[in-house]
Amino acid sequence: MAVNTQNWPRLPVLPDAATDAIVTSGLLPELAYAFGGPFHFLLPDAFTANLRAMQETLSAAGVDGFVHYAKKANKAAVFVEQAAAHGAGIDVASTSELREALGHGVRGEHLVVTGPAKDPALLRLAVTHGALIAVDALDELDAVITSALAGRIRPARILLRVLPPGQPRSRFGMTVTELTTAVQRSVEAGDALRMEGFSFHLSGYALQPRADLAASLVERCLNARVMGLQASRISIGGGLPTSYTDADSWHTFLATQTPAHYHAGKVFTSGDFYPYYSPASGTHALAALLETVPQDGGAPLSQVLTDAGVELLLEPGRALLDQAGATVFRIQGVKDRDGYQLLTVDGTSLSLSEQWFNSEYLPDPRLIPLQPDTPTGTFPASVGAATCLESDMLTWRKIAFGQRPRPGDLLLYPNTAGYQMDSNESPFHDLPLPPKVVIDHTDRPRPRWRLDRHFT
Questions:
Q1: Burial code of 265-278, b = ≥16 C-beta within 10 A, e = fewer?
Q2: Where in the chain is the domain with CATH 2.40.37.10?
Q3: DSSP labels for 264-283?
Q4: SS3 of 297, please?
C-alpha cells in the first residue's frame, strides 16, 4: 500500500549520464540473469576523468605533484591499469597489492608503500623495485636499511611518517623525538638510503589542518636538506571528500530523518554517517587546499611548496572513484510490514561496507522494475540480505520508492566504487563474491562489457 507523505526523507544522488545510459540500454537485467546474483559494474572513464582533473588542478596551481591511487579503495584491476596508462602511481600496503600493481603495468618507482609494521617480504620487494616506502616507526626504518644493505641493488627510497600533532592518539606515525632520531639514522645510513621527505595521513576532511601540517613538513624538508638529505617531497595521504548528493538534499535529510524512518526503529546519529555532501569535494577540495593559507604563514600552501621546491604527493581513493561504478542486486522476496515493505535481495551488506562500521550507505538505491508502472504514491521499503543474520541489512532506512518493489526487480545502489563494493566482501554462506563488470563504452547504443582482470 502506498504511503502518501511529502516529507519522507530522501537522499537523491547527483545525476550521472553514464549510469543513466547503462540503465536505459537494458543491459543490467541481462547481466543479472547471466551471473545469477549481485554484481558490480565499473566505469573506468569516470576514474580517468577524475585523475586528469586532479592532475590539471595541480598544474594550474603551479605545484609539482604526483597522484598515487589508493588501491585499498577498490581491488579492481581496471583502475590500476588506468592509473598506469595516465601517469599515476599506486598506494599499496601488502605484497599482494604490490605484485598486482606491477602485474598491471605500474612502474616500481611509481609505487608508494604505506601501512604500519610492514612485512619483511614486502620491504624486500619494495626496495628491489624502487618503490617509495612510508616508514612508520624506528624499528621499521632499521628493517628497511637492513633490507637495502642485504640486496645491494639500489638505495631504499623512504618517507618518514609523522604522527599528526592534532591527533596524538593515532597509532600511525612517529613523534617529534622519534623523527629526530629517524633523520639522524637516515644520515648515518649513507648510500643505503634515500630519504625523500615526510608523510602524514589525517582522519576527517577539514582542509586547514592539512594545510598546516603540510607546511610544517615543508619546513622539516628544508631542515633535513641542511643535514645532506634529499628531502624534496611530502605526502599528505588521502582524505579528499566526495559529494554524493546536493547541499539542500543532505541538510534536509539530516533534519527530517528519525528512528521511525528505519526498520526496527534503528537509531543512527548524523555523526555516524559519511558526509555525503561537502562544500568542496574531489578536485575542488584539492584546489581549495592548495589555496589555503597555513596558520603560521602568509602565503597559500601552493606557494609554500613551490618556493621550497617540494613536490606534493597525494594518495586519494574515493575521490578518484567518484561515479566510477555501482552495485546491482535482484529482489528475491517481499514482506509487508506495518506501513512499509521489507525486501530481501540476493546478496549481503558485505557489499555495502558502511553497515559493518555501524553506519548506513545513504544514497537512495534505484528501482529497476521488470514491469514499469505509473507511479501512484510513495512505497517505503527497507532492504535485507539473503543471510541468517538479523543485523544483515543493506538498508535499514525505509526508502521511498515511486512504485511497489516486486520479486525479480533490480536495485541499483549508485556510486559504490569508492570503498563500498568490495572493502569487506567475503563468501559468507558460501555465496560467491559479486563479479566486477567493466563497462568500456557507455557512449554506444549498446554498451560493451567484460569481466575485470583482477589476478587474485
A1: eeebeeeebbebbb
A2: 17-43+323-451
A3: GG----GGGS--S--SS-HH
A4: coil
Q: What is the pLDDT along the chain (456 residues), one digit of tens a residue?
A: 555 556 789 999 999 999 999 999 999 999 999 999 999 999 999 999 999 999 999 999 999 999 999 999 999 999 999 999 999 999 999 999 999 999 999 999 999 999 899 999 999 999 999 999 999 999 999 999 998 888 778 899 999 999 999 898 999 999 999 999 999 999 999 999 999 999 999 999 999 999 999 999 999 999 999 999 999 999 999 999 999 999 999 999 999 999 999 999 999 887 789 999 999 999 999 999 999 999 987 899 999 999 999 999 999 999 999 999 999 999 999 999 989 999 999 988 888 878 667 789 999 999 999 987 776 788 999 999 998 889 899 999 999 999 999 999 999 999 999 999 988 887 776 777 899 999 987 667 788 999 998 765
Listed in order, the ranges of the chain carrying CATH 3.20.20.10 are 45-243+278-320
Class of domain 45-243+278-320: alpha beta
CATH code 2.60.40.4070 for 17-43+323-451: no
Distances (CA, A) of 53 to 49, 283, 285, 322: 6, 6, 12, 12
Check: pTM over 0.90? Answer yes or no. Answer: yes
Q: How far apart are CA 217 and CA 304, in angstroms?
A: 11
Using an 8 Å Cβ cutoff, are 83 and 106 in contact?
yes
